[in-house]
What does this fold into?
Amino acid sequence: MADFETTMGAPSAGGQVVGDWTGPAAAHAQLKKVKKQKVLLMGKSGSGKSSMRSIIFSNYLARDTRRLGATIDIDLSHVKFLGNLTLNLWDCGGQEAFMENYLSQQRAHVFSNVGVLIYVFDIESRDVERDLATYVNIISALVQYSREAKVFVLIHKMDLVQPMTREDVFDHRAALVRRKTAEAVAIVQKQKPEQPPQASLTTTTTPTPTPVANNDLSPNLQLFATSIWDQSLYKAWASIIHDLVPNLSLIETQLASLGLAIDADEILLFERTSFLVVSRWTSAEGERNPYGDRFERMSNILKSWKHTCSKYTGTPRNAEQFSDFEYKMGATFSMFATKFTTNTYILVCMPPGEARFNSAKLNVAAARSWFKFLDGPVVPAQPAAAAVPGAAAGAGSGLGASQMLAGMPAS
Amino acid sequence: MENRQRLQKKDGVKVPDPPTPHTKGKPRLLLMGQRRSGKSSISSVVFHKLPPSETLFLESTARIQKDSLNSFMEFQVWDFPGQIDIFDNPNFTFDMDAIFGEIGALIWVIDAQDDYLEAVARLNSTILHLHRSYPHINIEVFIHKVDGLSDDYRLDIQRDITIRIQDELSDQGVENAPVNFHLTSIYNHSIFEAFSKVIQKLIPRLGQLEAMLTNLCRTCRFEKAYLFDVNTKIYIATDSTPEDMASYEICSDYVDVIIDFTEVYGSWPRSQQWRKRLEGEPWSQPLEEQVACEWAESGMVLADARRPIMLREVDRFLALVAIMKEGSYDKMPQINMNVDVVVKGLTEFFEITKPKELAPGAQQGPASPGLVQG
It folds into this structure.
């Protein structure tokens, strides 16, 4: 995780203070580096690990996941995300024999160099005690080999719980998982008192951590209630992905300057295949939107739309399905979504008005070159360096005057 | 746009009995069938947008559930509890006229995954009862829950049920009873398609509407055009080209996408400063005048560069959705003009047909729209 931080930090720092800037070559090297992240997907057999993986990365429909069989041992896949980030997804079969194997013979192999652990609990499971015992073992192994790893716990199949009680059931289970995590970490730390208890899974770094002291939120443990039947899955995966994206600050600054330049209310940047929200920018007015869950909803809407299209056009599920979309809702708002860079789609929501709308579309097209770096590791040195001053300009005039089409009414 | 808002899932489950709205002149759809055949699930999914997976939680209906559906026409949907046999009930006598007097269609739901002999027998006796006093009622049989069955098996069941009903009816001396069959499932578009067919039969002067859409398709070279009721995704008219499930599906899903976007970005009020800024310099125009069309309009180009899709709202309830031919996207301005004309024609049509009893001159229809040849 440590070297990852520097990759993200450098371009923005270079953009703000030119003195720190070691030259285009360094930037080039950093942008060129393909990040590989080891992501472990674990949980009891039948809890839904492979189903969610298929939905997010292979564009399965929720009901198609019934066809999936049990995962045998570890199913390794490399998911290319945004061209310069590759996820090494280890989908670990959850039957007990495999689990024991991961914890014994393959322990070092499985648990070393882990970037993210995603642990899936089935809310319908009959034997909660046993699930938690396995979870504790996994956490212990993880703390032993990859102290820096982030842990995401998904309480899955929430659709099977009555809607009224979902929140209570989740809160209750979440508290239980947090407590167990804290206990597991405490035990590992007690066993190895010679190692300084660096903040790994716990916030409190007291020399003798007690379970009580560890009860508060651990920064690297996040819990989500999920279901493959609604957008909750996208929310969880968007936050998993969010921290892994390289050059995130650069993307954010550039989106912000684009947003200000075209007078948008909201801009969302989606990854092409998964339609997870990579980054977003919202204006002050857009922040007043009462729908807090709109980002994962957009992912869900567009993804199921993609599915309809693929059925209609007879093209493969993973193929690109639409290139342009526009929607003008009278005098309420306008929006458009379009293919942006090779790996991304952009969705812009903006105030109504024909002239404003048309100039925004042209400006978004003109801004494509700023985001070339999203497309992948091979970036020529010059454009890479050129992209950074754009970020430095930040809130100021984002687009060069030559590119900027005045958003004026056509008198 | 307010009524476009999706009903919250929770609200959809239990719909309070509306305070018996005034029923005069509203066509009524009756949902009947054996218990657990899926009547309440159908009405929740179609009229309350309940996600199909949530219908597992629906409880058994204990009394007649009356919903009214406000749209371009006002419908009433009555959901009958399956356990009540209204013709043979020792405890109650039902006011037959009150139930069947203004009925538009009787929808009989049969669970195809269950033993349907009893359901067919009850349907037969219902048809015989009704045939005597109300011979003009359309009887629509939904052979339901066919999602899990293979295509061949579905058709076998449909054939079997059709034969059983026809045989029984002709034994009783009833020939050519108005019975239609639909294969349906709440897990795909078939239930909406079936409802579309049922409702189209209740629309006065449907032919006029279809002629307008056919004309539009010919002029703009559209592949297919639908006039949707936005709230239910039922289509009330289409052009004269052959029915095509795939185009209905994509158009109906497109309406869904638009509704979802509208809910997220269009359903909350913007602040005064926002408006002031947008109407000030350099625009100096009220927002309403900065837009070209006061209703929603939208277009989407599919990635294979063929068949763009367009949508245009006609009024609060209806939207025109069409699949265009390759390359038509470049001619959007011209197409928009034609669509404008048709939308105007449709608006006139509904103004004329609304007080249908009062305006006998309605059959001449709206002035034939003068389309721009494209």
Summary: Residues 121 and 155 of chain A are 5 Å apart (CA to CA). Chain A touches chain B through 53 residues (CB under 8 Å). The longest helix of chain A spans residues 166-191.
